[in-house]
UniProtKB/TrEMBL annotation:
One of its GO terms (biological process) is response to antibiotic. It holds the Pfam family ABC_tran. It is a peripheral membrane protein. Keywords: Antibiotic resistance, ATP-binding, Nucleotide-binding, Transport. Its main location: membrane. This is ABC-2 type transport system ATP-binding protein. One of its GO terms (molecular function) is ATP binding. Belongs to the ABC transporter superfamily. Residues 5-228 form the ABC transporter domain. It is found in: Cell membrane. It comes from Streptosporangium album.
Amino acid sequence: MTAVVETEGLTKFYGRRRGLEDLNLVIRPGEVFGYLGPNGAGKTTTIRLLLDVIRPTAGRVTVLGVDPRDARVRGRIGYLPGELTLEGRERARDYLTFLGGMRGGVPRERITRLAERLEADLSVPMGKLSKGNKQKVGLIQAFMHEPEFLILDEPTSGLDPLVQQEFLAMVREVRASGRTVLMSSHVLAEAENVSDRVGIVRAGRLVAVEDVAALRERAVRTVEFHFDAPVPREAFENLPGVRDLRVEGTSVRVTIDGRPDALVKAAARFTVVHMVSADPDLEEIFLTYYSEEGERHARTGV
């Protein structure tokens, strides 16, 4: 199948300042791709290149199989910008109805349904919308024409937690329909929740692309066992992936990287009364990429 996004050596410099350099990326049909990095890392530059808002300094890019300069591709994309400007006296509902007509006709019922899901008040004039309600209107306009490819730049900014959860449910529905989402964020938990793969960008360079399921398998977690009697320390020493072993009477606490199979088998030799396993610490993996890989790129340029 044709890639939804394919870039090769994609580079953008603003004068001498690097916005993005040597981006090689493929986004597959039907996946949610999380694009992660701190503010200023190059996420928005990437998105603007995909949308032909800016032109690359070097390299090539295709979106939905064509050059993004092809105007016909724009109607197949839904886009939420990171900085959304909505002004004027026009009501939000009228604005969305107008956009729907420009996009070939979007049923009003669909706009109403999305507004209800996001708890958006569309009777308010655009210039009087709060930050959160502007974001909701932006999400509605991105989703309402059911585009093949959704590009969402910091989509949950200004949303309360319950609305964030509804938004994530909407993203899952897009994926279930076979369509594709690129979600840019600096919030790990947000992207982890719905993404199939994540790309990590720092200082204008892509430092890693990872499968989320594989990351969870490799993630660092803390496991604590409580037994009905004291257990020997040596039963848990030198197990694959196990470190920071602490044995205190009837309890054993360890940090484990990756699969816990060997640890579980060791514990099964004794009578387990209680077990606690903390959620995988994916944050530690990402921080490792930011600190080690990013620094290596900064030093060597590769």
